[in-house]
From TrEMBL:
Coiled coil: none annotated. Residues 4-135 form the NADPH-dependent FMN reductase-like domain. GO terms for molecular function: FMN binding; oxidoreductase activity. SUPFAM superfamilies: Flavoproteins. It comes from Pseudosulfitobacter pseudonitzschiae. GO terms for cellular component: cytosol. This is NADPH-dependent FMN reductase. InterPro entries: Flavoprotein-like_sf, FMN_Rdtase-like_dom, NAD(P)H-dep_reductase. It holds the Pfam family FMN_red. Gene3D superfamilies: 3.40.50.360.
Length: 180
């Protein structure tokens, strides 16, 4: 049997992003899998650009990766009480691709942020952004990594027994959602 394909989407572009670390930790705790990460360096969505040139190739590439994945993990930071513009822009562009790569796809949503709530509001809003796509979003445990700049060790692994335990449980649930 082939390894499950897990695809990670981080709502942050920073090289040392806590959300990128979190999706990598999710993949590690998911266990034996093929893991790839999205590159969300898309132009800002512009209907005129789409009309003139179509959906950009880098957007189509991420859409294909989502479609080919057995499951997806998304982690968002929180900017001004909501998800990052990078993530919202990516979802807007991907929605312009033909078909619906998200339909029925098992998705785990999480967040990491500097504040004490760990991006809880951004995660709630992200979940609502996903509704039109009709994925199978897991309901819990909810992962909100607070004070995220201090939540990972030098190797990028999560510190904190509760975070590791709950992320491991979420990844077990995600694995169980993949059809055999």
């Amino acid at each position: 049997m082939a390894k499950p394909k897990l695809f990670g989407i981080s709502g942050s572009l920073r090289a040392d992003s806590c959300n990128s670390k979190l999706i990598r930790e999710a993949a590690r705790l998911f266990g034996d899998c093929s893991f790839a990460e999205a590159d969300l360096r898309f132009s800002l969505y512009d209907g005129d650009e789409e009309a003139a040139s179509g959906v950009p190739e880098n957007v189509k590439a991420v859409e294909r990766q989502i479609a080919e994945a057995d499951a997806v993990v998304i982690s968002t930071t929180e900017y001004n009480k909501g998800p990052s513009g990078v993530l919202k822009n990516a979802l807007d562009w991907i929605s312009r691709c033909e078909g619906n790569c998200w339909a029925g796809k098992p998705v785990a949503v999480m967040s990491a942020a500097a504040g004490r709530a760990g991006g809880e509001r951004a995660q709630l809003i992200l979940r609502s952004f996903m509704v039109p796509f009709r994925p199978r979003i897991l309901q819990g445990p909810e992962i909100h990594v607070a004070n995220c700049s201090n939540a990972f060790d030098e190797q990028g692994q999560l510190k904190g027994e509760i975070y590791v335990k709950e992320l491991g449980q979420l990844m077990q649930q995600l694995r169980a959602e993949i059809p055999a």
